[in-house]
Amino acid sequence: MNKSFFSILLLCIVGITNAQPIFTKADTLRGSLNDQRDWFDIMKYDITVQPFFATKSIKGNVTWTVKVIKASNDIQIDLQQPLIIDSIIYSTPNSNQKNSLLSFTHTNNVAIATITDHPAINTSFKLMIYYHGVPIEAIRPPWDGGWIWTKDANGKPWMTVACQGIGASAWYPCKDIQSDEPNNGASLTMIVPDTLMAIGNGRLKKQSKNNGLASFTWEVTNPINNYTIIPYIGDYIGWDEKYPGLKGDLDIHYWVLRESEEKAKLQFTQVPLMLKAFEYWMGPYPFYEDGYQLIQSSHLGMEHQSAVSYGNKFANGYLGRDLSGSGWGKNWDYIIVHESGHEWFANNITTNDIADMWVHEGFTNYSEILYVDYYYGAKAGNEYCNGIRRGIQNKLPLISHYGVNEKGNGDMYAKGANILQTLRHSINNDSLFRKTLIGLNKDFYHQTVSTQQVENYISNQSNFNFSKVFDQYLRNPQIPTFNYHYDSTQKILTYQYKNCVVGFNLPINVLYNSTVVSLFPMDYEPKKRLIKMDNFNIDGFVKEIQNNYYLKLEESKF
Fold first, then answer.
1. CB neighbours (10 Å) of residue 521?
2. Which percentage of the chain shows pLDDT scores above 70?
3. pLDDT tens for residues 249-267?
4. CA distance 64 to 37
5. Which CATH superfamily is domain 339-475 in?
6. What is the crossing angle of helices 538-548 and 378-387, to 10°?
7. Which DSSP helix (H) or strand (E) runs through 272?
8. pLDDT at 95
9. How many other β-carbons are positioned within 10 Å of the β-carbon of residue 536?
């Protein structure tokens, strides 16, 4: 092999490493509002499903209640192979015409049906979609998605679904995009063997038994993400309690497998503690009408709205480990805290596009810091936040490509939390920071949003334009450098930002020796500050910056 071969090989490797992702038509159909999707608004889903454990198959039907917002008649229905649509029936309320059977084509994971009567704007109609088949099976839930077929310790069937990322269309036909949540909620009816219990989101509205089968209908009245509508089926037992929250008594329901009752009743006493801390920091639990449920699952956990899944083995930490390495993460149950935090950020406030998923995961990861702060103090919260920095890669921007169903990279968790930690210390007013978190959940209550709306809201509330700060941390992978030099003779600190976007202007406020020291570095010129404090220790001062801000620090002469 000669030198030329190695040169070509190196170019190929570099090209592959730096290559942009390739998106397909299927990615665009799933991730964007095209002509077959943008003309209608989902008002409600009514889902009925019957699983067959022995064959790992399901059959069911879903009724869409739809409002027309634009004139059109071709409608996209998302249902992933190998599931099959059997028929689609169209009907309009208060109409004398009979239900009509629609013609449709089903290619790959998308069906296109044609409504022949061209529904008028501001009218509504229903689609009833019948389907069956063997759904995608999750192999490593919740990291991948699909239906989960397993058994409990007594050999009884235990079934559920995890579908964030892969999408709800992996198990039922829907408009599989985050920007259109059903305004009036959803119902889920599960038909199962009468030896099992079936639990869904919200409240149990109806149940019956007949010929060895049991039917359970659950309903939420609030808007809900497609991917958080989930069936839980198994030999469950449950108990209730009420939490005296900010909007009155909140109904709490716990569901676990029969053999887990004793351990769960001890571990789940952490739920009221979580609610107390989060209602303080982020405002009222967003779904009082639907209650709060914590449900044992065979996988680690997910933020299913009003029906949070729990699989943390009734232990503190993350499967018994402290992800921060600070020691504080072993004092509480990671899954109870983190997945419930999503009720505020992901379920109450949902991003239109999963490219902005940092809003879900960054804020929720930061809710862990808020929990530690609430019960153990600000110093403990800072230590926990610093500890989770260890896993940040900084290889890609947090925000990915829009319109192609591509979520941001894994840094959205810990880096997202450290962005918020940085902003909190930069704002230097915990009352205002808390007011901003509460305001986000109040002003964007039950809405879908863009990252730009969240960014602008934080800037407006804090009365400082953080747009370049967000550009730096969300849209660029590199971490800005705080470059400094201290002249101990003249007691002058010179400082500047480097390795950052043009205009990066993050203010730094440091509580040092009981005094708040404010710095306003820029990227285009060094600034000087005369330090008048007695016994000033530059190393201690710099350490405070490093603890509270997500910056690289570098000492050099200017």
1. 22
2. 96
3. 999 999 999 999 999 999 9
4. 13
5. Neutral Protease Domain 2 (1.10.390.10)
6. 80
7. helix 270-282
8. 58
9. 16
Q: For residues 415 and 550, is the Cβ–Cβ distance under 8 A? A: yes
What integer pLDDT is reported at residue 6 of this predicted model?
A: 34
- How confident is the model over 460-477, as pLDDT tens digits? 999 999 999 999 999 999
Q: Report how far residue 317's alpha carbon sits from residue 339's, in angstroms, rounded to the nearest whole number.
A: 13
Q: Which two tokens stand for residue 152?
A: 């409990």
Q: Is 463 left (phi over 0), alpha (psi -120 to 50) or beta?
A: left
Which of 1-21 are b and which e, b meaning 16 or more Cβ less than 10 Å from the residue's Cβ? eeeeeeeeeeeeeeeeeeeee
Tell me the CATH class for 33-233.
Answer: mainly beta
Q: If you ran DSSP here, which 8-state letter would residue 98 be given? A: P
Residues 6+ apart with CB under 8 A from 356: 399, 408, 450, 451
pLDDT tens digits, one per residue of 277-287: 999 999 999 99
User: Looking at 38-185, which runs of residues are DSSP E strands?
Assistant: 40-52, 57-68, 74-78, 84-91, 100-101, 104-107, 110-114, 124-133, 146-151, 157-162
pLDDT at 14 over 50: no
Please, are residues 114 and 208 in contact by the beta-carbon 8 Å criterion? no
Cα atoms found within 13 Å of the Cα of residue 369, Cβ hemisphere only: 31
Supply the pLDDT for residue 118.
85
d(CA 293, CA 275): 12
Q: Evaluate if pTM is beyond 0.90.
A: yes
Which one, of 126, 127, 137, lies nearest residue 53 by Cα?
Answer: 137
Within 54-141, residue ranges assigned H as helices are none
Q: How far apart are CA 201 and CA 484, in angstroms?
A: 53
What is the CA angle 406-475-359, rounded to 5? Answer: 60
Q: How far apart are CA 28 and CA 109, in angstroms?
A: 12
Every domain of the chain and the residues it spans = 33-233, 339-475, 481-555
